[in-house]
Amino acid sequence: MEFKDYYKILGVGKNATDDEIKKAYRKLARKLHPDLNPNDKEAHKKFQEINEANEVLSDPEKRKKYDQYGKDWEHAEQFESIKRPRQQHGDYRESFGGDLNSDDFSEFFNSMFGGMGGGHSRRDARFRGQDYHADLQVNLTDVYKTHQQVLTVYGKNIRITIPAGVEHGQKIKIKGYGDPGIHGAPNGDLYINFHIVNNTKFKRNGNDLYAHAEIDLYAAVLGGDTTIDTFDGKAKLNIKPGTQNGTKIRLKGKGFPVYKKEGAFGDLIITLNVKIPTNLTAKQKELFEQLSKLSSQ
After folding, report:
1. Cα–Cα separations (whole angstroms), residue 165 to 34, 208, 221, 270
2. Which CATH number describes the domain made up of 6-124?
3. Is residue 228 predicted with pLDDT exceeding 50?
4. So where are the chain's domains?
5. Can you give the C-alpha Rg of the chain in angstroms?
6. Closest by Cα among 231, 234, 239, 222 to 273
7. Which of 16, 90, 133, 164 meets the CB 3.0–4.6 Å disulfide criterion with 20?
8. What is the pLDDT of residues 135-151, one digit of tens each?
9. CATH number of the domain at 203-296, out of 3.40.50.300, 2.60.260.20, 3.30.1250.10, 2.40.240.50?
């Protein structure tokens, strides 16, 4: 498997801090984002590379494994599980005449997994394919319903199903859509990290949606029905007499779909804003004055 220098890809040194890695990634992501380079395949490829590099270097555990094992970092746990019992019995050091450094790792790993019987060459080593990591930006309206979308990852078009209710920052795994395995080993997996842009007037919190609705003073005082916007259409809302400004009304089942729970939805919470009338006529002012006097009696 080809070695990828994640530090070089992000343009930082090996001693870079978490903040330096984060800043470098954000700067490159803004420059190489597919939305800004729709017809540039090279930019798309580099965008995937910086996502992959950031995925590893921004995670302390993954970064530690990468620093120690290089291109074979994803097999570190398997290596450690082999190394421990061998160290306990003393044959681990004897096999290499001392401590095993990161340069020896690939050869050791290949000899263990590709030559159990001692007669296989390094070319017979079986390696699971490398995982792919991709960021996918979608609008909030796009994840209200389950739908299919074609995603380009490392120059390969992959049709995926995006379940309704996916949240911002959520990561899903699509098994077997990573790099092909070597010598019959399983393919890697594809991990998609969702960046959801709210292109609506609704605020989302989990499965619940929040919005404001304006009612006139007369409806607030006397009560009545009003029509409000929901995420997928209109709904009639009953206003009780004497409703105060800032009153919240919960509409059950009018929120966002629950992830992978068919037919389940959160709630829609509406905050009512009472609109005070302006530009009153002389007659209207007179009537309000009369009401004011009556209320003070």
Report:
1. 24, 11, 38, 20
2. 1.10.287.110
3. yes
4. 6-124, 132-197, 203-296
5. 30
6. 239
7. 16
8. 899 999 999 999 998 88
9. 2.60.260.20
